[in-house]
Amino acid sequence: MEYAFNLSQPINGLKFCSVDTKSNFKVAILTASFALPLDSDTAANALLPGLLKRTCKKYPTLTQMNRHLASLYGAMVSGSVGKDGENQVLTLRVTVLEDRFSLSEDKISSAAADLLLDLIFEPNLIDGRFAEEDIEREKRLMIEQIESELNDKRYYALKRCTEIMCENEVYSKSRWGEIEDIKSLDSARLIKAWKNMLSSAVVYIGVTGSMNADVIRCRFEQKFENIDRSHLAELHTEYITSAYETKKVREEMPVKQGKLVIGMRAGMTDADDNYFAIKVMCDIFGGGVYSKLFNNVREKMSLCYYCSAGFNRGKGLIMVQSGIENENEQKATDAILAQLEDIKKGNFTDDEFDASIKGITNLAYGVCDTPEGIDRWYGGQMLDSDIITPEEYAKQIRAITREQVIAAAQCVTLDTVYMLAGNGDAEDEEE
């Protein structure tokens, strides 16, 4: 798909990224993301997107807000909390119909930009405080979100392995904060967190669609002109290049299917260190139906219900997730590690290598199939020194050689083996 990409940094600590999709889609997306250190009042920061997205000074009730969204042809507002390395990312997003579909001459995108600015800079404060009922509602919803994630045993096992693996690192912290800390949140802490977000966070503003990006950029610049941003937060992630020892932890819960998670260090010193070679290596290892984990451990050996490897560039981790029978714990562990050793020795075929290159590049090109994909692609690079297009990314992947994949695999070290075993009182279903 043809589109025009533009990146600028109009003020200190702010990236403004616009992608003109040449009227290829029916909707446009405006995104504002704020990155802060993960250990800077995590719970208060995490509550802000939910608190800010529902109302603002101009539309102080849910009824008024919903009525305004309906007047914008069913525009949608969403908020999210993410983790990029050892940094917390708070996001507000407005999805709106493209201007050409308006039944009047009014610019829907202009009104959507005004709404996003109101949500961020003009929240619904009463005597300088957030309403207690709003705070309590968001606290309840966030605790429910945390509890729902813990009920997903596959996610829980991955989370526990990561916590054990990174127990002395900031990365082990939850992006939400701790439940007891969430319960103690009050308006004073939230007001302080909101002001700190505006003054010290690294900010990314993304515009995806055929709207006038220059006008929107100027509006954000004008808002930030009144805020002292001379003391930006220092964003940093500690990369552990090699595991010092191998931890083995086994826990039991009432699950039908055991969850085996193996955590490895990828040998990276920062997010750019050998990134593309590691990406291809990890994909050959366990990225798709052509991977060694899928074809050998799952299909040929029948040791698991699922088995895949994920690469976390933001922390330099490779995490293998597998669903197994309890009695296959050691066999599955040995088989998974044997596949990695094969790659270290160069024991992978040209077909496996080519399938991985093709699979990764096809996914990159597929980004441009939807405005949501484009928005996620560029927003996901907000902390990178350089932002690249999907085409540039695919070119870098295609340039990787077999020798680079082997060298990348040889830098991987085993850190943690975590097993969540069933204790006989099964509650979940097999996947």
Task: Give a written overview of the molecule.
With 431 residues, the chain is of the alpha+beta class. The protein has 15 helices and 13 strands. It has two domains: 222 residues, Cytochrome Bc1 Complex, Chain A, domain 1 (2-Layer Sandwich); 176 residues, Metalloenzyme, LuxS/M16 peptidase-like (Cytochrome Bc1 Complex, Chain A, domain 1). Strands 1-2-8-3-5-4 form a six-stranded mixed sheet, with helices on both faces. The longest helix has 20 residues. The two termini are 36 Å apart.
Principal-axis shape: globular
What is the total number of structural domains? 2
CATH class of the largest domain: Alpha Beta
**What class do helices, strands and sheet pairing give?**
alpha+beta
Q: Which residues sit in consecutive blocks of at least 5 with pLDDT less than 50?
A: none
Residues in helices, as a percent range: 40-55%
In N-to-C order, the SSE pattern is EEEHHEEHEEHHHHEHEEHHEEHHHHHE
How many strands? 13
Number of helices: 15
Measured between the Cα atoms of the first and last residue, the distance is: 36 Å
CATH homologous superfamily grouping of the largest domain: Metalloenzyme, LuxS/M16 peptidase-like
Walk across the major sheet and give the strand order.
Answer: 1-2-8-3-5-4
Radius of gyration, taken over Cα atoms and rounded to an integer in Å: 23 Å
User: What fraction of residues sit in β-strands?
Assistant: 15-25%
